[in-house]
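ok trying this again, last paste got cut off
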Amino acid sequence: MSLLARATLLIVCCVLAPSTTPSTSWGQDQAPKQPTGVPKVKAEKVYHDWGSLLRGESHGCVFRFLNEGTAPLRITQVKPSCGCTTQKWTRGEIAPGEYGEVALTIDTAKLERGHQEKMANIFTNDPNQSNVQVKIGGKVLTVFRSEPNILTLSGLHTATKQGHVDLLPGAGRPFEVLNIRPTLKAVRVDRTEVLENGGRVRVFVSANAALPGVKQERLRVTVKTLDGKEHQDDVKVNVKHLERIVLEPKQLRFPGKETAPLFETPAKPVVKQVRIKASTPEVAFKVLRVTVGGPAEELLETELSTVEEGREYLVQVRLARPYSKRVLRGTLHIETDDMTTPLKSLRIFAQFRPPRKTASK
């Protein structure tokens, strides 16, 4: 074979020989390596019972989480449902077969007396269970409890209102009352009386005359137990300053849905009721006249009846036809023989939505 023929054969063999290294095309990236496993979270427990705590005490507990998967587990976030709970948790990766922890601490200072439960959401990188909910719960006790639970003082707004509340041991610990003061000055503490040593203390409370309405107050009570420790808690007080004569409802409304039958043929009247009542047993009055003021005067008809002489009356208010405009306003005036409240009024509001006219074919 000539030298030229040998060279030609060598070139052909090099071209046809298979490549021993993988080839990549220009502009194409190699596929990333896929993970060999996934994390799997398993909670050792999802509920912790703290038993009984005295309000103001704190309690901590730990929830453990096992990684049953084949890749590192991470606790990414912990969100308690209440600001009374603080949290700490394992940072970084939790190897397969290892445990991570979430520590929760609850402060009972602002929790109500009785059984309480709080929740926390544990977020992880487990693709099949990214959120685990855990709960902590138990009883919250107080050094004392009140009877009634909420003291209500109710009476005419022009008069002084009086009442009392009893303080009793709430956690089985005798106590001594050191101080009681209102937080908002809506009431005053007149005096206290010890009915049982270390047991029941009666607190006499009163509220002066004020404008009509409801006021919420708290009595800040400081007591000392036999171990010398001082404890502070609140007793809720509601003060109702009543008007002599009460109207129910306080506003008369005719929504568009209720006035729709007025546009039917024949029209269907809409009827509402207003009750006029004495607020307390000592109030006696008589309704002399009921009138309607404003544009509503031409559309509304009223009828007065007696439910209980001197105590309660009923007014039927009848709307028989629609108004020319979409909104109607007026006032219902009720005249009485009461020297303090000779006139009571309430607002009237009505909406009208005429049916849309359909185009004739």
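PB: full thing came through this time. Residues 258 and 270 are 7 Å apart (CA to CA).
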